[in-house]
Amino acid sequence: MKAIFEIEKSNVQKTKDILLKDDVVARASILFKHGNALGLGNKFYCYISGVEEAVKKSKELMKNLGKEVNEKTKEKILQKINEEEDQAMQGFGGIFG
Description:
Blueprint: E1 2-7, H1 12-21, E2 29-34, H2 35-38, E3 44-49, H3 52-61, E4 66-68, H4 71-96
Antiparallel strand pairs: 1-3, 1-4, 2-3
């Protein structure tokens, strides 16, 4: 399961602290991205990927820190993240290939 939240700059560190202190959520993959890197302006995004329990718990914890993005924005962010991962893998291939 995956979820992406839009958060204010002032809540980034607080969000990291809360998510990483939770035993269930901390086991998920958590990624923070600046909106400029995603073509979405001066905002921050938190991407969480993991088992259903972790994503549901992250939604509860994020209730007062950020809002879950709509499907269109979620798809755009996921596409950008996948592109970055593909480029990183190609870079590793050049090093180890």
